[in-house]
Amino acid sequence: ADIDALSAPGSRACIEDFTFDDAAREAYEQRRVKTDELRQRLGDENVFDPGDLWYTDDERRDPAAWFDTHNWRVESLTGSDYLTQLGRPLPQEPSVAATFRAVFVSAEKP
Questions:
Q1: pLDDT class of 4 with cuts at 50, 70, 90
Q2: Element (H, E) at 32
Q3: Distances from the Cα of 93 to the Cαs of 3, 43, 82, 87, in angstroms?
Q4: Taking Cα atoms as reference points, which of 76, 61, 66, 69 lies closest to residue 106?
Q5: 100 and which of 20, 35, 68, 79 could share a cystine (Cβ 3.0–4.6 Å)?
Q6: Whether the predicted pLDDT of 95 surpasses 70
Q7: What is the DSSP string of 54-108?
Q8: CA dihedral of 87, 88, 90, 96, whole degrees rounded to 10
Q9: pLDDT per residue over 41-81, tens digit each?
């Protein structure tokens, strides 16, 4: 069963959908090196790496489109648009700016 079949009316889902272009991959690899260093320093293989949750293949469907085709109410907002709404400056450093290419998707089942 999928999330639609298991969800009652009024259920909500929120997703941070990352765009994985070359800049985002490079920024992630830099962070992953730091995570690996932390694992070694702590002697703990269980240090959480968010990259373990990411899908990088092109076969994954856009979550906003998926919810829309299943008749959920969908709103999407890019990370940079979110910062603009808050009146916050956009990061200038490429490795940081790459993290704001994400799209925040919220969906509610009618």
A1: very high
A2: helix 22-42
A3: 37, 31, 18, 18
A4: 76
A5: 79
A6: no
A7: ---STTSPPHHHHHHHTT-EEEEEEHHHHHHHTTPPPP-SHHHHGGGG-EEEEEE
A8: -150
A9: 888 777 777 767 776 666 677 899 999 999 999 999 998 89
- Closest Cα partner for 37 from 50, 27, 49? 49
- List pLDDT tens digits, range 69-80: 999 999 999 988
> How many residues comprise the chain?
110
Of 59, 54, 65, give the one whose Cα is nearest residue 24. Answer: 54
Q: Report whether 63 contacts 15 (CB < 8 A).
A: yes
Kindly state the helix (H) or strand (E) to which residue 34 belongs, with its residue range. helix 22-42
